[in-house]
Amino acid sequence: MRLGQTSIIHFASRFLASASGFAATVFIGRILGSGGLGTYYLILSLVAWLGIAVKMGVPSSITKRISEGTDDAAYAVAGTSISIVLFVVVSALVLLFRGQVNEYIGHPAAVVVVLFLGVNLAQSITNSVLRGQKLVHISGVFTPIRTGSRSVVQIIGLLGSLGLTALYVGYTAGYLLVTLLGLWVAIKNFQYVRLPRREHYQELVSYAKFSWVGSLRSRAFNWVDVTVLRFFVSASAIGIYTAAWNISVFLILFGGSLSQTLFPEMSSLSADEDSEAVADLFETALAFAGLVLIPGLIGGTILGEQLLQVYGDDFSRGGTVLSVLIVATLIQGYQRQFTTALNAMDRPDIAFRINAVFITANVILNVSLIPYFEVIGAAAATATAVAVSLVAAHYMLSSLVDYSIPLGEIARQWGAAAVMGIVVELGRRGEAAYVNFSYEFVAVAVLVTLGAGVYFISLLALSSRFRKTVVDNLPSRLSGISV
After folding, report:
1. Other C-beta atoms lying within 10 Å of the C-beta of residue 214
2. 106-137: string of b/e by CB count within 10 Å (b at 16+)?
3. What is the pLDDT of residues 167-185, one digit of tens each?
4. Is 133 in a helix, a strand, or coil?
């Protein structure tokens, strides 16, 4: 029950964060247009890639070592010192080659890239410590605070005609705020303070040398397509693509919360060599990884154009791209549980190979398809690559742990989603024929709310496991959570 409550709190926090981020993105799209949105996301894509070199798997390594229950402060200090050195080196290179950086972005933003790298790194290290301390729900609560504060500052700045500068200031303010709050909580929860010794650095590096490719995989999933698109399409097309991407990623939040919640628990059980309990947790993760993504795929396919039109009229032509991207995130929602289990079992070497398969396939497919199919090719490349890595992950994990795939539970989710899809399609046709809301956003909000309600009720009727999970995690039981 505690794990379920923690996942729900973390998911609710990330949901609120994404909702506020979605609102800000809509605002950006309407004020700056698809071109301005595309430029902003090109900056974020460059920060994401450079962030790999800045972090080099250290945050994941901090979480793993702290979750094992010894010398938590020493690992935190060691990891932070390594990251600072990497940040200084990467930042110096960005400023040295600022001309090339500005030319790629199409905007003078090299200094902004360095600023974003710094605040992003600080927040990442802080979150890694909190997750290692099994305070995943606390780190999750900071996410809507970060995104909400960022969005408020950005919107105020846009209303003040600050343009892209408003986006830079808001991003920085949001990350700095949650970093300070997270440090305060993390320091309070250190068991005792001890300076790191050589073995602390060695153990961090021994894990990070494999886990860094997990960050590379995440960046490849989120940013390879945007990076390659820059060479073949306009900033406006990238803006439309990233708008569709924002909606699709919105649906993967619950699976991400599930994996982050279960990782420290699996890590602790693995350290105790309890493989049966690890397998049980993993099966639970698979059972619920598609809980939101499956209905999201059906709903997104039906309402794709209307959802994107909320950003502005020129965004509505991305409906097909949205459907393909949701397929990619659905597959990713399951694949992520496999690599989480492998990392928790202290097998980052295997996760490394799986991630390498995905990265290689994603780069090759994007470079091959984008020149001919542009944004559709980018979405299809990502979906295909993550499917290949899912097959590889299943093959490799099954050789270590005896588990079964909960096909019955997944089938019931598809059944409930099918019922939802019928109701939403009928509602869409009825709205167009008889109601015809003046504002597209109102129609979309009503249909999404209706669909979510139908799906939830249908799944309650079809799945005894889902009913039990809901009952076990009702709000009246939340008092059992310890902070």
Report:
1. 23
2. ebebbebbbbbbbbbbbbbbbbbbbbbbbbbb
3. 999 999 999 998 999 888 8
4. coil
